[in-house]
Amino acid sequence: MKLHIKNVKKNFSSFRVLNGVDIIVEKGSFHAVLGVSGSGKSTLLKIITGLESIEGGQILLDGKDVTHVPTETRGIAYVFQSPLLFPHLTVKENIRFGMEVKKYDKKTIEERVEELLKLLRIEDLGDRMPSEISGGQQQRVSIARALATEPSLILMDEPFSGLDPALRIEMGNLIKDLQRLLDLTIVFVTHDINESLRLSNYISLLDQGEILQSGLTHEVYYKPQNRKSASIMGDGNWIKGIIKANRFSSSFGDVSAIGFPTGEAEMFLRPHQVIIGESRAAFKVKISGISRLGKETQLTVAYGEEFMKIDTFSNENYQINQEISIMFTDSNCHIVPCG
Amino acid sequence: MRKFKPSNKTNKYLLALPILLIYGLFLGGGLIGVAIESSGYIPALGLTEVGMAHYMNILSAPNFWSDLTYSLYIAFFAATISTLLGVYMAYRLLLSKHKKIEILVKKIMQMGMILPYLYMVFLVLILFSRTGLISRVMYNLGFIETLEQFPQLFYTPSGAGIILIFVMKGVPFVTLFVLNIMGRIGKYYYQVAKIHGASDFYILKKIYLPLSSTAIIWSSSIVFIYYLGAFEVPYLLNSNKNVNLSSRLYSLYIDTNISTIPDAMAYNMLLVIIGIIAVVVYSQVLKRIVKGGGH
Amino acid sequence: MKRILIVIGLSVVLSAMLLTILLSMFSYYRYPQILPSEWTLHYWMYFLSVNDLMAEAVLNSIKIGVFTAVLSTTVGFMTGRVVVSHFKSNRNMMMIVYSLPLFVPATALFIGVHMMMIKFSLNNNFWGIVISHAIIAIPYSTNIAVSFYEGISIDMENVAKTLGCGPILLFKKILLPLLMPGILLSSAICFLLSFSEYFAAFLVGGGKLVTLSTLYYPYINNGDYGNSAVLSIVFVVVNLSVFAIAEYGTRKLTRISNYLFE
Fold this sequence. Notes:
The complex is a heterotrimer.
Chain A: E1 3-12, E2 15-25, E3 30-34, H1 41-49, E4 56-61, E5 64-65, H2 71-74, E6 76-79, H3 91-101, H4 106-119, H5 135-147, E7 153-157, H6 165-182, E8 186-190, H7 193-199, E9 202-207, E10 210-216, H8 217-222, H9 227-232, E11 237-244, E12 247-250, E13 253-256, E14 263-269, E15 275-276, E16 283-293, E17 296-303, E18 306-312, E19 323-327, E20 334-337
Parallel strand pairs in A: 3-8, 3-9, 6-7, 7-8
Antiparallel strand pairs in A: 1-2, 1-4, 4-5, 9-10, 11-12, 11-14, 12-13, 14-20, 15-19, 16-17, 16-19, 17-18
Helix pairs in contact in A: 3-4, 3-5, 4-5
Chain B: H1 9-38, H2 53-60, H3 64-95, H4 99-114, H5 117-128, H6 133-141, H7 160-185, H8 188-195, H9 200-211, H10 213-229, H11 232-237, H12 245-253, H13 261-291
Helix pairs in contact in B: 1-13, 2-13, 3-7, 3-10, 4-7, 5-7, 7-10, 8-9, 10-13, 12-13
Chain C: H1 2-23, E1 26-28, E2 37-39, H2 42-50, H3 52-86, H4 91-98, H5 106-119, H6 126-151, H7 154-162, H8 167-196, H9 199-205, H10 212-221, H11 225-252, H12 254-261
Helix pairs in contact in C: 1-11, 2-11, 3-6, 3-8, 3-10, 5-9, 6-8, 6-9, 8-11, 10-11
């Protein structure tokens, strides 16, 4: 189902939490909303389900305005940060809950419960109480419970943030597989950059109640519209230069910039897009900082007055003040005119 | 049908309606009725003269001030002892390492909570009165030669028996109430403070008292005002000389002489006002003591 | 030292209980004999068959207690809901408001209540006593309700809503089962408060409607050990049974209550 969040405004007393948020979530997409805590992500999800009212704007589902439809009839599933399993019901009863409320027939319910237990790999836990299973298992049950009524849209509010890192990745992969398998439409809220990159195919960046940028995940990642968008998704390098006659020139030479207006501009590169190596097009820089992160090494290099970050997987034993050669391919360069 | 929707204002008033009705009609209405009659205005009895005369009657009565002092004395001592012992017991139970003793003590406390005051009076009488079990045992062991040598705890101006019963009921109440909060605070702070070399008493004073101050002040104030307004225990065990305010009020209220009704109502109002002032002062002083632990 | 104190305390409590039982079955207890003598069934027979008022009083007390428990718990859980969902910031203030009856000296409070009961023709009446008892029980039931509502995350209710629960289903399928231990606890405590209350029953019942407390009082006042002992035992047995039932009930539901409070 296609979701259109249209110019949504929300206040908490006099404080504006969401200030005209616009997002379009395509059917069958895995859409991440990335933002730091306090950016209004959870509030946005609660608005989509109708758990919070809004001061302005609309929520459209497949073009139909549902802004004033009560939560229980919107048919949007919600997976919260904590599993929130009903403590007085068994795992099976939890999964069955939504179907019973919606009066599915008995046979369908039984079949679907078995199917979901299998899909989420919790076949053996059906008759346990929530307090008797682990946190990761609880979150699987809560996902099964959300999927049970075949909702047209599933919202997830940092559902794995309570789990340890390895489990987080495993659960992420599971959700990704399910999403593809069942062609689910998912809106996934997170503050974890890696998680959003790994899982989503669309992304919206939310900052202080406003959408900074929305689009295909890799595009938003490599082609941020401004410094803020870029920094929300991680480290990056901005290289100052000038555009003249369809060429962008900086201290690293010229790259083509067809269609850009003449004037000052900046070029953006993620640290891993900078390649270390000798070639005719390479430039000499001096290492000013090294931090080794296991398989990956992060270098800070100086060129002129400026600094640049480089991620490399090379095992070389770099030293401070060592001179190295770097380069990058034209096609990687993302150019943003200033002002 | 009861509906629940946090955003719905009508539901909010609907849910609050029963308590507002009960409190408004019977508590509020009762006090207003008492206040009106205390001014001397009871048309049904042909009394229409309005004024403060009945308050003056009460305040100028020779025994009023001694009754007041006596009532405050009993309430204060009983509440203070209950609070001291109750908080101490709660702290001990919190730190207890012996699960069995902890459970046993808690069970005894719960027993104390659920036994009625009247049964407590009976228990205390058959144990601690001059002809009670303890006196008998001491006599048979040769500690006393006549029962007159056993201290008289009941029907005396000291009110010792009354205080004893109040404390027996008050300690479990304060202990369980405060323990509930201390249990939520947990032992963690105790362990941290112990590592820094603090004594048990110091940790209680500086950490657990301030953190559980609301529960302490709350439970202590409730027992204080209860002791001030309690009827049956003092009425049974008062001496002839000292009578507490609530017993005196009751005697006035059931007096068959119709002309004393406004006096009784004025007495009632005074007891309410004294009660409120006393509990405010009591709780504020207690707050200073409990929260002042940090300075 | 600690152990000695506990042993002394325990033996005092136990000996008092034991003595109560003995006093109900032996009629002769002259100073300085330590235990009473002259075995008799007189007091128990008096309670069980001779004096009909006794059985009536016990029955009245139980009925009043049950209705007080139902009324106070219902009102308490309705009020608790309002307090938790609408007064997040001034919880302490609300606690004082719903506990107001506890801060008025009881004797003065009940004389005012008695006046209103006369106005509404509820004096000497069963329901008059129930309402009077509810006034001092509601602060406790509300307090219990508040702590139980606080234990239920608002997001738990939100999940149920997204799964299709309207207000009624939400109450029936989620809130009620989760509140059940609290409802049980509140009912037990309100029953015990009512069952043990003397002054309100005495004043509002006006002697026309006897309860166990109002019957019990004169026996104690007159130092009638035998009859006092019998009624004491009845008191304690009923109170302990109610307490035991509540404890058993909540233990059966601990899987939930642990979740709520730990």
